[in-house]
Amino acid sequence: MLRADSSPGYGAPCVVSRNEVATVMADQMQNSSHAHGHGGAARPLAAQRSGPIKGVLRAPGDKSMSHRALMLGLLAVGRTRIDGLLEGSDVLATAEACRAFGAKVERLGSGSWQVDGMGAGSLLEPVKPLDFGNAGTGTRLMMGIAGGHAMTVTFDGDASLRKRPMRRILDPLTLMGVEVISEAEGGRLPVTIRGTGDPAPIEYRTPVPSAQLKSAILLAGLNSPGTTTVIESEASRDHTEKMLAYFGANIVSRPDGEHGRRIELTGRAELTAKDIVVPADPSSAAFALVAAIIVPGSDLLVEGMMMNPLRTGLLICLQEMGADIEVLNQRIEGGEDVADLRVRASSLTGIEVPPERAPAMIDEYPILAVAASFAKGDTRMCGLAELRVKESDRLAAIADGLAAAGVRSTIEGDDLIVHSTGKVAGGGPVATHLDHRIAMSFLVMGLASDNPVGVDDVAMIDTSFPTFQPDMERLGAAFFEDGK
Ligand code: S3P
Q1: From ligand 1's centre to the CA of 350, what distance in Å?
Q2: What is this structure's pTM?
């Protein structure tokens, strides 16, 4: 678990040697090479009905912000200090990529890192392909960064990432003058692009609400001589815009239509290195929150959770379902709304989740489906098309996992309906398809189901929540290795 000591000023940082860093990275990358689908053995795990979930959790640093903090550190001039960085394999792959572009990236201690940046427009060309493992965010944002530099870069990833669509990024980058040298069938990885030092300023309306897409365009636009405009009809998470402004970029964002935003970035402003504190990831805290809600007698405090309104869709849903969640000690940290949450076991009732809420809870549908399995009545989640192109086809993976655990669900178009009686039989093993959030969600389900729930592989959890198992066990969760 990353503790609250990830904030600055907790004593002198311990500077570890490059070798030690290499060992941490090698361990993590080795774990992720299981995850890469490049051969490591799968690690099955099961969860069984446990006692109350009690205590205090500090979830690891936010994954979205951790990627961006390293990248803006790379693009800034000077030394950026990051505290609370998520040390999951997705983010470590981004740290490696920053090194490949010439930045000096050092780990100072748990969650504390520093980046000596190169300055936007002055990156070095990586000498070998960049392997992003399982990380869609790392890949897509770095494509934008590379696209804004006159260099040739190859992007690759694991079996899951190789299935994910990259055309949504390559299309606008092409309009900006980037050349796609090669791509696998259907716009998949491995992809090689030749970027341009003179990206054309474009105005682009995103066809899907995607922060990764929006961010790739803005990051390429940093090196453009004009104003790059992105318009989205449903606002997606805005960490890139906020962090760019914090680093001194010339960026303005304003509402557009009922739920949308128009973002304008004027390029070629120098970014200045900054200190950043990364708050706890709501998408990771979500697993403990739901565990505490569904396991009888639970009473959990989740500390320092990021409450950016574009990330709190799950909380709204859980509150609508009747969950007992108290929001305490609201404050601003690292430029983001943050709060502590006290969560107690609750009886839930099914709800209808409107499609416009999807961008604010896009990663939380698997765990919401688990909560819905313990609710009385149906829960209908509308407009889930984007779930089909996540780390797995999450719509299918959720429905199959529910079926394996004895919960009835149906898919109608892009909607998922969980038909719940309030009781879950359990079962498995649930197929995780190299998807960390499917693995964690179904393990949480097993903590409150009549019989255990098993998942076929947990190696992937390292990508976003490396301390999931010990953190959850400390709070009372009962896991066992399947087959024992
Ligand atoms: C992310 C954006 C979301 C989300 C992903 C992280 C980001 O993807 O699913 O886990 O950090 O920008 P999309 O923007 O493609 O929806």
Answers
A1: 26
A2: 0.92
